[in-house]
C-alpha cells in the first residue's frame, strides 16, 4: 500500500456540537459549521425522521460505518490489517483497503480543514495521489452499492474539502473520489472533476446561511 511518510501537517480544530449540528473553532476563533452539516441541511428532517422510525437499523449502520472507517484509517497509518467479529465488516474493510492500495501516494488522513471563503470546516478522510493527480478521497459504506446520481451530497462534501485544502496548503486538487464498499460485497471508485459541483455547493451554502446568518 502507499506509505504515509511525508504527510502534510495541518492545525487541529476544536469541535463543538450545538443547534443539532457540528461546528469547528478555527485558530483565529471563528466557529464554522461542519461540511456534513451544511451539505445535508436540505435533508436534515428526512434523515431525522428515518432515524426515529428505524432506531436499531440506524444504530447498526452508523456503528458499522464508524468501525470500518477506523479500520481503514489504522490501515493507512500502520499498514496493518485488523479484523472484527463481524464478517461483513471485515469484507467491507477489505474492499476499501484494496482501493486504497491503488493510490500512488497518501498525503493526509483524517486531516482537519477549514475555509474562510466557504465559512465551513471538517475532517477529510484522505488526500492522496490517484493516477498521478492530487485527489480528495472520501470513504463510504452502504447497504447496497449506490448509483452515481445518488451521490450529490458526497460530491459536494468532497468539493468543499478540495477548496479547503487549496486554501490551507496552496496545493490545488483537480479530482475528487468516492471509494464505496457495500454490505452486498461490491466496491467501486467514483471520480469527478473537483470543480464540477461548485455551483451546487454554493446553493447549499446559501440555503444554510439564510437560516443562520
Description:
It is a single chain. This protein has 213 residues and is of the alpha+beta class. It has a single domain (14-212), classed as Trna Endonuclease, Chain: A, domain 1. Helices cover 40% and strands 28% of the residues. The chain has helices at 35-39, 44-53, 55-78, 87-100, 152-169, 198-212; strands at 14-18, 21-25, 31-33, 105-115, 120-130, 133-142, 175-182, 187-193. The strands form 2 sheets. Strands 4-5-6-7-8 form a 5-stranded mixed sheet, with helices on both faces. The radius of gyration is 17 Å and the shape is globular. The model has no long low-confidence stretch (mean pLDDT 91).
What's the structural blueprint in terms of helices and strands?
Elements lengths: L13 E5 L2 E5 L5 E3 L1 H5 L4 H10 L1 H24 L8 H14 L4 E11 L4 E11 L2 E10 L9 H18 L5 E8 L4 E7 L4 H15 L1
Parallel strand pairs: 6-7
Antiparallel strand pairs: 1-2, 2-3, 4-5, 5-6, 7-8
Amino acid at each position: 500500500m502507499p506509505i504515509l511518510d511525508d504527510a502534510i501537517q495541518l492545525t487541529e480544530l476544536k469541535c463543538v456540537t450545538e443547534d443539532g449540528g457540528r461546528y469547528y473553532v478555527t485558530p483565529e476563533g471563528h466557529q464554522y459549521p461542519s461540511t456534513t452539516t451544511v451539505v445535508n441541511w436540505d435533508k436534515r428532517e428526512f434523515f431525522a425522521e428515518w432515524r426515529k422510525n428505524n432506531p436499531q437499523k440506524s444504530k447498526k449502520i452508523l456503528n458499522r460505518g464508524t468501525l470500518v472507517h477506523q479500520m481503514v484509517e489504522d490501515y493507512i497509518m500502520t499498514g496493518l490489517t485488523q479484523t472484527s467479529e463481524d464478517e461483513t465488516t471485515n469484507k467491507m474493510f477489505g474492499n476499501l483497503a484494496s482501493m486504497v492500495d491503488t493510490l500512488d501516494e497518501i498525503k493526509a488522513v483524517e486531516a482537519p480543514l477549514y475555509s474562510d471563503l466557504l465559512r465551513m470546516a471538517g475532517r477529510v478522510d484522505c488526500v492522496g495521489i490517484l493516477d498521478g493527480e492530487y485527489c480528495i478521497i472520501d470513504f463510504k459504506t452502504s447497504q447496497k452499492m449506490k448509483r452515481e446520481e445518488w451521490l450529490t451530497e458526497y460530491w459536494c462534501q468532497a468539493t468543499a474539502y478540495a477548496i479547503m485544502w487549496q486554501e490551507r496548503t496552496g496545493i490545488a486538487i483537480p479530482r475528487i473520489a468516492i471509494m464505496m464498499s457495500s454490505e452486498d460485497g461490491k466496491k467501486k471508485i467514483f471520480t469527478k472533476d473537483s470543480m464540477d459541483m461548485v455551483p451546487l455547493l454554493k446553493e447549499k451554502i446559501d440555503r444554510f446561511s439564510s437560516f443562520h446568518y
